[in-house]
Every structure is written in C-alpha cells, then in structure tokens.
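Consider the tokenized backbone below.
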C-alpha cells in the first residue's frame, strides 16, 4: 500500500533522476562515458559508506557479498555506463523516456522469474510501450544513424538492468542464512562494489586534460544526488512497496528531464518526443494499475 509519503518520495526521486540526464550531457563530452560512470559510482560509494557508518548500519560484507555484487552490476555498472554512452548521441528527454520502459521490463521479468500472471491489461501495456518507444525513436527530429540506434538500444538495455536489479533487491532482501539485509546496507554495498568493479578501467579512461569546474560540479551532483541520495531513498522503497510500484517512478522522470533539458540546455521538446512520452506513460499506467490489483509476492 503506497502512502502519501511514498508518493512524495517517488516525485522527489523523479526530479533527481531527471537531473541525471542533464548532468550526463554536460560531463560526458568532456571526460568520456566510462570515466563519468566510474566517478559517479565511486563518489556515490564513498558518500554512502560514510553515511552507513554514521548511522551505524551493519554491512556484513562477507555474508552479503553476492547480493551486493549482483545489485552493483545491474543497478550501477551496466546502466551508468550505458546511459553515459547514450548521452553522446541522444537528448536528455529521449534517454529519459527510454529509461521509463523499466516498469515494462519489470512486469515481464516478474512473469518470468516470480511466476506472476501476465494479464490482458499487462500484455496491452507491454505492446503499447513498445509502440511508444518506436514513435519516440523513429519519428523524432534525430537522424536515424547507427550511433542513434545503438544509443537507444543502450538505454533500453540499461532500463532492463534497472528492472532486474529491483527484483534482485526484493528477492535478496534476506541473505541465505535468513539474516535481513538493511536497505541502506544494500544501497551502500552495491555502490562500493560497483566502484571496485570499474576501478581497473581508471588508467585507460583518464581525460587528457583537467575537467572544467562545470563538469566537476555536474559529476559531483550526479554522484551524490542522482546516485547516492536517490539509492538511499529508492532501495528502502523497493523493500517496502515492491519493485513494480517502486519502479513507477520512471513514469515521472521524462517530464522532469524534459523540463530540466529545456531550462538548462535549451533542448527542444518536439511533438514526436511528447507523443512518444505520452504513449509510454499510458503503457506504464496500464501495467502499474494491473499490478496494483494483484498483490505482489514477498520473499
């Protein structure tokens, strides 16, 4: 059951994640996609580790290493790298709308992995979501070259990873010996391990020149706000209200991304972008309302 406080948290998360696509558009051209992803997860990991120690959250690294690693890969390493790559070729609004397909993937994965029933309403939502993505990518103002198509594919793959990570968080909320994994510990462990996984890339992705102050501020905000603070809010929500309802935050992200992109980057919002966003949001609404009518399984 979602409370008004949960809804407010989802709106705040949407605003934070909507900003992330703007920060990527600023940072990636100067320091590259992999360096941006590496700094994002590393700074977030340091901040989250300090916060976890401050509030004395037990980490139990040995016992929880496997779930930390799985969430790190699917919620940080892969999607951060994919969206950083895509930001070189897609406006922020495009990336955000493609990211909003994560609940569609979540609905599909719930059927495959959690044995949830695929109702006609969910199936309609899945089909409508695919159509919305096609409108967004195929009917927009961007020229459909190989870079754009690969960037769109990277965004969709990242959205699928986010959906998988939400199910993993819910499924591994308790470790194999029955001990509860604190949501903040899960958020912290995933960011720290994500940084360790990406750290061997550092010698190969260093920028040739020292980045500008604007880029440094963008990466810092991307790491601390759109990753650290956001994960600290989002993972407890997954545990409390379930992955499908928590992923409904993706519905609102494109709206904030379009707003921030228009205000801060001067990115145009064309009719194709709006049409694709509306279709995807309608699809999300169908999937979410179908999920609300059937209580999600707990593990």
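A designed sequence for it:
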């Amino acid at each position: 059951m979602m409370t008004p406080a949960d809804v407010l948290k989802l709106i705040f998360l949407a605003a934070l994640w909507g900003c992330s696509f703007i920060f990527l558009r600023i940072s990636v051209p100067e320091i590259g996609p992999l360096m941006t992803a590496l700094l994002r997860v590393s700074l977030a990991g340091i901040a989250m580790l300090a916060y976890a120690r401050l509030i004395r959250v037990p980490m139990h690294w040995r016992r929880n290493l496997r779930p930390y690693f799985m969430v790190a890969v699917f919620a940080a390493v892969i999607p951060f790298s994919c969206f950083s790559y895509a930001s070189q070729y897609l406006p922020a609004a495009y990336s955000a709308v493609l990211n909003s397909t994560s609940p569609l993937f979540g609905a599909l994965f719930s059927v495959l992995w959690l044995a949830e029933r695929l109702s006609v309403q969910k199936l309609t939502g899945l089909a409508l979501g695919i159509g919305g993505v096609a409108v967004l990518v195929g009917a927009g103002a961007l020229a459909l070259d190989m870079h754009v198509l690969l960037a769109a594919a990277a965004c969709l793959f990242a959205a699928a990873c986010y959906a998988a990570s939400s199910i993993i968080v819910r499924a591994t909320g308790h470790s194999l010996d029955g001990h509860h994994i604190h949501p903040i510990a899960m958020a912290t462990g995933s960011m720290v391990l994500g940084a360790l996984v990406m750290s061997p890339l550092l010698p190969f992705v260093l920028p040739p020149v020292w980045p500008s102050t604007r880029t440094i501020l963008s990466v810092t905000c991307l790491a601390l706000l759109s990753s650290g603070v956001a994960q600290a809010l989002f993972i407890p929500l997954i545990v409390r209200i379930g992955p499908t309802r928590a992923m409904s935050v993706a519905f609102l992200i494109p709206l904030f991304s379009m707003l921030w992109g228009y205000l801060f980057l001067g990115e145009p919002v064309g009719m194709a972008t709006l049409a694709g966003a509306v279709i995807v949001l309608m699809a999300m609404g169908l999937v979410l309302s179908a999920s609300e009518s059937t209580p999600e399984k707990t593990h």
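Residues 20 and 66 are 28 Å apart (CA to CA).
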